[in-house]
């Protein structure tokens, strides 16, 4: 689960955690955020300062912009063969200005 990996990195580095979730459309946004918060409730986020950012648009572009805007120390990308296309992940890894980790 990428959230647990990202939380562990933030905790070890004594940094805050910015969770960025990008959707291609704004349909059913409230339901999507409810499901995201339910997923996060299953992860040990204790002791972390957390910000949740929701964006609509091209996932690669939005992740790159969010990393730059928040001056990210690292970017953790949750990827699955079924949901996250490899070209999108590769585009982010090549263009982001901080280390990037892809977590299956």
Short description:
Helices cover 44% and strands 21% of the residues.
Describe this structure in words.
With 104 residues, the chain is of the alpha/beta class. The protein has one domain: Rossmann fold. The chain has four helices and four strands. The strands form two sheets. A two-stranded parallel ribbon has the order 1-2. It has a two-stranded parallel ribbon with strand order 3-4. Helix 3 packs parallel to helix 4. The mean pLDDT is 91.
Physical arrangement of strands within the biggest beta sheet: 1-2
N-to-C span: 7 Å
Structure annotation, total helices: 4
Q: Tell me the structural class.
A: alpha/beta
Q: What general outline do the C-alpha atoms trace?
A: globular
Please provide the ordered H/E string of secondary-structure elements: HEHEHEHE
Total strand segments: 4
The CATH architecture comes to: 3-Layer(aba) Sandwich
Q: Unreliable segments (pLDDT under 50, ≥5 consecutive)?
A: none
Q: Give the class-level CATH name.
A: Alpha Beta
Percent strand: 15-25%
Radius of gyration: 13 Å
Q: Write the CATH homologous superfamily.
A: HUPs
Helix content: 40-55%
CATH topology: Rossmann fold
Core attributes:
Rossmann fold; two-stranded parallel ribbon; 104 residues
């Amino acid at each position: 689960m990428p959230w647990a990996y990202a939380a562990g990195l933030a905790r070890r580095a004594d940094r805050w955690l910015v969770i960025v979730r990008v959707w291609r459309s704004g349909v059913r946004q409230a339901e999507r955020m409810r499901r995201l918060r339910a997923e996060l409730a299953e992860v040990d986020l204790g002791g972390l300062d957390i910000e949740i950012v929701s964006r609509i648009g091209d996932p690669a572009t939005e992740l790159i912009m969010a990393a730059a805007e928040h001056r990210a120390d690292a970017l953790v990308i949750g990827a699955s063969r079924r949901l996250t296309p490899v070209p999108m992940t590769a585009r982010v890894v090549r263009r982001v200005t901080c280390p990037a980790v892809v977590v299956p």
